[in-house]
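Chapter summary example.
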Amino acid sequence: MVDTLPLRFRVLHYISTVDKASADQIMQALKPEYGTEKQFTKKVFVDHLLDMKANYIIDDNDVTLDDKGELVIYYSINNGGKRLLDKYLPKRWNQK
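The structure predicted for these 96 residues follows.
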């Protein structure tokens, strides 16, 4: 049995393990788990992040420009996101 979470929830879980992360950093970290899935695209990750921000479970806390001049937004989990994880995260994931 493969022990994976739905992608959006796994993104939230990953963000809870770091101070801040951009979509590219999250994708790099989750590629071993989800990289072969059709949904593994930057657009999907950005959409998940924007939806989570709109639902007040993550915050954007830093913005920079990459070497191509593109905007890079960094996100971190907030108290609402932590409560969501506490309520719904399977116990076996608490040690990961």
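To summarize the output: The chain has a mean pLDDT of 92.
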